[in-house]
Design goal:
Order of helices and strands: EHHEHHHEHHHHH
Protein name: Olfactory receptor
Membrane topology: Multi-pass membrane protein
Helix content: over 70%
CATH architecture: Up-down Bundle
Radius of gyration: 22 Å
Strand content: under 5%
Shape: globular
CATH topology: Rhopdopsin 7-helix transmembrane proteins
Largest sheet: 3 strands, mixed
Subcellular location: Cell membrane
GO molecular function, one term: G protein-coupled receptor activity
CATH superfamily: Rhodopsin 7-helix transmembrane proteins
Number of domains: 1
Main location: membrane
């Protein structure tokens, strides 16, 4: 670490998506709109759950956590990405790079565990509805949420520490849209195969283990649904899980493509696109999925809009 070619640079240059100015301006407008929709959608979901007492249930407690994770994840990456679209010098200081890596990795891990927790909640609701309130009591929900946040943060802290202890070459150009862990590791002057194995192992623990729990939960859920005699009962039970299942497919699918398969099979462009999808599109779609596919959320929206329109009419008169 003491030699000149093994010290960290004070800043890095993110190469981003394109060097063409017109393309960068177009991308700036597109991603700005998507980021604003993401922040607005997730904040409205949190506000709606807070204001409507009918949504004060375990499912929506976890959905609040998911919305907070989504908007935080997007905020850890997108504002810096937008600033670089309009900047000639696309630099990010070392400390900011380390912070970005930590928060994006932590929030991604939190989301995976949280989705497994939400799957368990749906399992309890469908497979043991009479004891649902006793099983998913407030203390357990709080512990499960805390476990999600702590496990993702510890995993990220470990990887961030290991990554920034590697001896680095003088190259300070990161061929990515952000300080993503695989892109930063490429700057090392040493063989990083052990680091990539560590990333894969932790991905299996923090990604595949929750995914297996999700699959086990849904195997039991589907088995229970198929035993329901009435078609309406089966439809209602499946509808209870449809939104969560859609979000699971989006989040886990992109993460598996990025971190589980052999790194050499992905091009740099594919890595960038997957990161963009996960940082912008998924957080933007999640509140839409829960709003459009969930009758309780749609009912709460109608109730809130009706109250707002009534208040507006009173003020106008």
């Amino acid at each position: 670490m003491g030699t000149d070619n093994q010290t960290w640079a004070s800043e890095f240059i993110l190469l981003g998506l394109s060097s063409d100015w017109d393309a960068q301006v177009s991308l700036f407008v597109l991603f700005l709109v998507m980021y604003m929709v993401t922040v607005l959608g997730n904040c409205l979901i949190v506000l709606l759950i807070r204001l409507d007492s009918r949504l004060h249930t375990p499912m929506y407690f976890f959905l609040t956590n998911l919305s907070l994770v989504d908007v935080s994840y997007a905020t850890s990456i997108v504002p810096q990405l937008l600033a670089h679209f309009l900047a000639e010098h696309k630099a990010i200081p070392l400390q900011s790079c380390a912070a970005q890596l930590f928060f994006s990795l932590a929030l991604g891990g939190i989301e995976f565990v949280l989705l497994a927790v939400m799957a368990y909640d749906r399992y309890a609701a469908v497979c043991d509805p009479l004891r649902y309130s006793a099983i998913m009591h407030g203390a357990l929900c709080t512990r499960l949420a805390i476990t999600s946040w702590v496990s993702g943060s510890i995993n990220s802290l470990m990887h961030t520490t290991i990554t920034f202890q590697l001896p680095m070459c003088t190259n300070k150009f990161i061929d990515h849209i952000s300080c993503e862990i695989l892109a930063v590791i490429r700057l090392a002057c040493v063989d990083t195969s052990s680091n990539e194995v560590t990333i894969m192992v932790s991905s299996i623990v923090l990604l595949m283990t929750p995914l297996c729990l999700v699959l086990l939960s849904y195997i039991r859920i589907i088995s229970t649904i198929l035993k329901i005699q009435s078609r309406e009962g089966r439809r209602k039970a499946f509808h209870t899980c449809a939104s969560h299942l859609t979000v699971v497919a989006l989040c886990y699918g992109m993460a598996i493509f990025t971190y589980i398969q052999p790194h050499s099979s992905l091009s740099v462009l594919q890595e960038k696109l997957f990161s963009l999808f996960y940082a912008i599109l998924t957080p933007m779609l999640n509140p839409m999925i829960y709003s459009l596919r969930n009758k309780e959320v749609k009912g709460a929206w109608k109730k809130l809009l009706w109250k707002f329109s009534g208040l507006t009419s009173k003020l106008a008169t």
